[in-house]
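Exercise 7.
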Amino acid sequence: MVGPYRGLFGAPGTKGFVVAGFIGRMPMSMLGIGVVLLVSALTGSYATAGAVAAVVSLAYAVAAPLSGRLVDRFGQARVLVPFVFLHAASLSGLLLCAHAHEPQWTLYATGAAAGASATSLGSMVRARWSHVLQDPSRLHIAFSFESVADEVVFVSGPAFVTALTTGVNVYAGLIVAIVLTVGGTLAFAAMRSTEPPVVRERGTAGSPIAIPGVALLSAVFLAMGAVFGSVDTISVAFADEHGSKGAAGLLLASIACGSMVSGLWFGSRHWKITLRSRFVRALSLFAAGLTPVLLVDDIRFMAVALFFAGLSISPTLITGFSLIERLVPARQLTEGMSWISTSIGFGVAIGAWAGGRLTDLYGASNAYGFAYASALLAVAVGLGGSALVRARHSAR
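Solution. The predicted structure, written as tokens, is:
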């Protein structure tokens, strides 16, 4: 299963930007649950914690296409360096405001600034792969590897930040996230040899979201993001309700581990069916895999259920990014891929807020129903509009 990945790092500079990109985006799995753990510990309200986490995700979702467009226009390094310092300063402000028990609006303000200044480093890593590799089959393997790397991040990140927050200090999780973000991003930006060149063309180019296939994928990943955001918040409360808040990291690591395993397998296969068919099938399995989560009321069984729920996440993301790479012009590739991150970010914001509110009102076990409904919505949108992706892909 790992055979196809062995020759992936032969091109000069690939190992460097992969390692730096991995470190720099490790905090993407730590930030949401870190905010929830910090704010809930200091305020005693999951609704407030979910709302602050939602503001962070919403601000990121709004700003990601703008930062992606800036990267396409000016290059990765010139955008990443100022953005990462602004992000670190904003997140530090959130920590200080929470520590000083400042009014809630200060948490929302600093959270919004932290989210808006976060960059889609995963999209930039994939853009580098698109620049370095020309063979579509090798690019499929590279995108699959990046999806596996994302899931490794989501396996280790939640458990790591939970252990730091609950075992060391309530602020330790987000402090480590700041250090990893700054260090990894600066190292990534310094590697100029693999940075995609800026493609300048006369006239003004419209946004990739105007492409029907991109709009469809964005809508699907919006609903999927709602699943991710709600599961993050609800799982923390689920573990707390069962007397083991520290097990929240295990629950979130389980769903990410399922996605990691399937992503490794998915990338090792040479597929004969079209990208559209792969996308539709993976999306359908995504909703089916969440069904057992509604029936479980034990932490151990919930970890198993979430593992199986995660098995179809990576294949759906891999095919989504591959479709974007084929739908969007090269000069807008970073912005095009950022729309997936933006859509997921909007969904995470909605899911974090709804998950917190429903947990406070009905309990964590019942609140998982929102995640399931969001998955069904993603399937309905994807199946109903898949012809847009097929028509555009066939035409190109």
